[in-house]
Write a structure and sequence with these properties.
By secondary structure, the protein is mainly α. It contains six helices and two strands; from the N terminus they run H-H-H-E-E-H-H-H. Strands 1-2 form a two-stranded antiparallel ribbon. Strand 1 and strand 2 form a beta hairpin.
């Protein structure tokens, strides 16, 4: 039962943690094992020294790999932050332009309208309402050709 809990914990930990954390953890595990197992091992001193060196080198390699992964991760985060900042700026600019054009459309004393692909009126400003005598709700959806035709014909 205890082994099953440890196995599930380790599986979740390995799945949830990025490579950098894993590499650093592997380096720490190698160092911990070397500190506890090598002093009590019945190995000739030259071999023990070589093993200590190799284990320390392996641990260092894992820790350096973890550091490099974290640096790349922080660089990607900085790039994403820059993109998000740029996107927010562009969204604000778009909102300001939309507001500006709405004010121009609303406040202009001339006839201004927009058409869809079929030539029907989508928007009609107050200047056009005053000049032509139609209200926006009366004219929206009407083909422009019908508006421009002479009613006497």
């Amino acid at each position: 039962m205890y082994a099953g809990k440890i196995k599930r914990f380790l599986e979740k930990w390995w799945r949830d943690h990025p490579v950098a954390v894993r590499n650093a953890a592997i380096g720490v595990v190698i160092i911990s094992w070397a500190l506890t197992a090598l002093p009590t091992a019945d190995i000739a001193p030259p071999v023990k020294g070589l093993l200590s060196f190799l284990l320390a080198a392996a641990a260092l390699i894992y820790i350096i790999a973890a550091h490099r992964s974290m640096v790349r991760l922080y660089q990607k985060r900085a790039e994403l932050d820059q993109l998000l900042t740029k996107q927010k700026m562009l969204t604000k600019r778009k909102m300001r332009l939309a507001d500006y054009f709405d004010r121009v459309l609303r406040d202009a004393g001339d006839i201004i309208f927009t058409l869809d692909e079929d030539g029907c009126i989508l928007k009609f400003n107050t200047g056009a309402e005053e000049i032509l005598g139609y209200k926006q709700h009366e004219i929206v959806g009407t083909p422009l050709t019908k508006m421009l035709s002479d009613p006497r014909e």
